[in-house]
Design brief:
The protein is an alpha/beta fold. Helix content is 40%, strand content 16%. The protein is built from 13 helices and 13 strands. The strands form two sheets. The chain has a seven-stranded parallel sheet, with helices on both faces. Helix 6 links the parallel strand 6 and strand 7. Helix 1 packs parallel to helix 2, helix 4 runs parallel beside helix 5 and helix 7 crosses helix 11. The longest helix has 16 residues. 47% of the residues are buried.
């Protein structure tokens, strides 16, 4: 088969990691794969690592940078798709811009056109320009695709809304490679300090300001605690300024996205704090559990993301900061051995090996059924 995997950009994010792993597996199975993006790949080392992995298996990354005219964008993508020859399926992972690739695929006759919702979204009020555009994009996605996936039920509902019936949507989260994953135990802090980790793009969705507030409250009980941010994004400068304003520069570090974030989870921290405003199925929450790292997160993280129940505590964002601190202190005591964690993942929807035959059936005949 000839498959196109599409994503909006190519950073070191959950969708991109999944696309890279899927491309590697498809090529290993004898299929031809093309990866298409709408923005040039990030120059960050972690993103470059993904590009190198694609190139190592002979997959080229093609970029069509979008303009302001949807019609022209569709025809520019159509030109690239024609260059690939007869394609069997296109799998889009860009959320609201999926329709551009999907309509181009429709026009060139690609039979299987998949829209895979990766996140929940702020749709906006219907009478605002933003709200009108979002609703239009959802309608266009629904009309151009003929297969509909969501990493969670919440993500699917957010993307497809009233335009696709629930029975046509399949919940299909991003998997992790069980064979290459090291299922680790929990490193321990001390009675005076806990090592807190947050991984995510510096943007309103992740709410790093809330993370700082919880951490500040934690310091009043565990004064030797530390906080590590892993990520980049438009809000990074404001968060750096807030760290200075609060006098936390000796306690808080920020590093760029890391290709070995799972090693950090296993070896360098005690609790993963993730109080997002909205989410799809956050890959970092899955990786934290696989690494044996306890997670304190908001209810924006959907229930499907809980693979190892003992390691996850979900809280409402409206709860007092002290409740978050208490949850961190309590869950930091949890220890589970790697073999037990691995058994949870082998039987879960996140086992990448179990996903491969399903996705191949979808590409070949439009159904997960054999």
């Amino acid at each position: 088969m000839k498959i196109v995997l599409q994503t909006y950009n190519f950073t070191f994010g959950g969708p991109q990691i999944w696309v890279c792993a899927m491309a590697e597996r498809l090529v290993a199975s004898g299929h031809e794969v093309h990866v298409l993006t709408f923005r040039k790949a990030s120059s960050q080392p972690a993103a470059c690592h993904l590009v190198d992995r694609l190139q190592a298996v002979g997959v080229k990354l093609d970029t069509v940078e979008l303009g302001r005219n949807y019609i022209l964008d569709v025809f520019r993508v159509k030109k690239v798709l024609r260059r690939y020859g007869q394609v069997d399926a296109i799998h889009c992972n860009s959320d609201f811009s999926d329709f551009i690739a999907l309509y181009a695929a429709l026009f060139v006759g690609i039979p299987i056109r998949i829209s895979h919702s990766r996140n929940t979204h702020q749709i906006g009020r219907w009478w605002t320009v933003y709200g009108i555009k979002r609703r239009l994009h959802r309608l266009l996605n629904a009309s151009a695709a003929n297969r509909y996936l969501g990493v969670s039920k919440e993500a699917a509902k957010s993307m497809f809304g009233p335009f696709v019936s629930a029975r046509r949507i399949v919940e299909f989260p991003s998997g992790i490679d069980i064979e290459s994953m090291v299922f680790g135990g929990l490193p321990q802090g001390n009675d005076r300090g806990l090592r807190i980790l947050h991984v995510g793009r510096f943007a309103p969705q992740k709410d790093q300001l809330f993370v700082l507030s919880v951490f500040e409250q934690l310091l009043s009980i565990y004064p030797e605690s530390s906080l590590l941010f892993v990520g980049d994004g438009p809000d990074r400068a404001s968060i750096e300024g807030e760290i200075l304003n609060r006098g936390l520069e000796s306690k808080v570090r920020i590093v760029e996205p890391q290709a070995d974030v799972c090693r950090i989870m296993r070896e360098e921290v005690d609790v993963f704090l993730f109080p997002s405003r909205w989410e799809g199925t956050p890959r970092v929450v899955i990786e934290a559990q696989a690494s044996g790292l306890p997670v304190v997160t908001s209810f924006a993280t959907p229930a499907i993301s809980i693979v190892v129940p003992e390691l996850v505590k979900r809280l409402d964002r409206s709860m007092p900061l002290q409740d978050w601190v208490d949850a961190i202190a309590e869950i930091a005591k949890v220890e589970i051995d790697g073999a037990t964690i691995q058994s949870y993942f082998i039987d879960s929807k996140f086992n990448f090996d179990r996903q491969i035959p399903l996705i191949l059936n979808l590409y070949a005949q439009g159904s997960f059924e054999e």
